[in-house]
Amino acid sequence: MRFTSHRDFARALERAVRRAHLPIAYSSGFHPHPRISYVSAAPTGVASEAEYAEIALQKRMDPADLRRDLDAALPPGLDVVEAVEAQGGGLDERIEASLWRLELPGVAREAATPAIEAFLSADEVLVERMTKKGLRTIDARGPVARLSLNSDESGAETAPHAADTDSCAILDLVVQHVTPSVRPDDVLAGLRVAAGLEPPVPPRVTRLAQGMIAEHGEGATPSVTGVESGNGAGPSPAAAAGLTDPLGPDRGTAVTA
User: Fold this and answer.
1) Residue 103: phi, psi to the nearest 5?
2) Number of neighbouring beta carbons within 10 Å of residue 34
3) 115-124, 129-138, 184-193 — which is least confidently predicted?
4) Is 71 left (phi over 0), alpha (psi -120 to 50) or beta?
5) What burial letters (b/e) apply to 133-143, b meaning 16+ CB within 10 Å?
6) Of 152 and 71, which is predicted with more confidence?
7) Are 93 and 41 a contacting pair, CB within 8 Å?
8) Residue-level pLDDT at 4
9) Which has the closest alpha carbon to 149: 161, 160, 158?
10) Collapsing DSSP states into helix, strand and coil, what is residue 252?
11) Residue 184: in which H helix or E strand, if any?
């Protein structure tokens, strides 16, 4: 699924809405489109466990029924985890950062530590990215709120794709959503620029959470300390990373069909 583009995902969701016979609302004009909006789509080539979409309906539905019907209509690998009724305010107003898990096969933890320190100690780390308008230089350091080695040494739950955790450094990254966007591959390029760290094989990247960066006092800036690892009984990935839950304000609302 990591190689599915956002456009493919959007098409799959629209088709699933039709198959599930949801009372979807449409835009006005000569070419009406389903009123579905997305927040911070994940780049092609990465996996994600924290994608969000807003769906406008012509009439109210029980969120549990919508989740069940829509999930059943989607192909395997695209799973609707939760649905809630919006209680005001756009979803984009509740999301300003993403938590990413970066698995670097062939890179030992001992080699990753000084690279992280060099990256975080820099005022800016300039990298180049090819865009539709040509080659562009961006600062990969500025939007990074947190970057550290993952603290779970077992690797069994936090790095399901890493067969050998001794030779696979696992990084936790919290990056703010800015314009132009800074993606995990930009941060990896920044580690190469700042410290010469370059994995011998392509990294595996997974988005674990999105949300707002929790405040740490008036005028405080986000910490660059490590992200606490979840073990199923601990805090959610978002909470452990210091991110708020975007759906928190909407939960617990009774909706009648």
Assistant:
1) -100, 125
2) 17
3) 129-138
4) alpha
5) eeeeebbbbeb
6) 71
7) no
8) 87
9) 158
10) coil
11) helix 184-195
Of the candidates 221, 228, 96, which has an alpha carbon nearest to the alpha carbon of residue 172? 228
Please, which residues have CB within 8 angstroms of residue 115's CB and are 6 or more apart in sequence? 191, 194, 195, 196, 197
Tokens of 83: 């649905």
For the chain, give percent helix, strand, coil, nearest 5: 25, 25, 50
CA distance 12 to 19: 10
What is the distance between the alpha carbons of residues 185 and 107, in angstroms, rounded to a whole number?
16
Chain centroid offset of residue 185 CA: 13
Which amino acid does the sequence have at 25?
A
Residue with tokens 């092609």: 44
**Vertex 226 angle, CA 220 and 227, to 5°:** 95
- Measured CA to CA, the distance from residue 54 to residue 38 in angstroms comes to 6
Nearest in space to 147 (alpha carbons), one of 202, 224, 82 = 224
User: Letter for the amino acid at 91?
Assistant: L
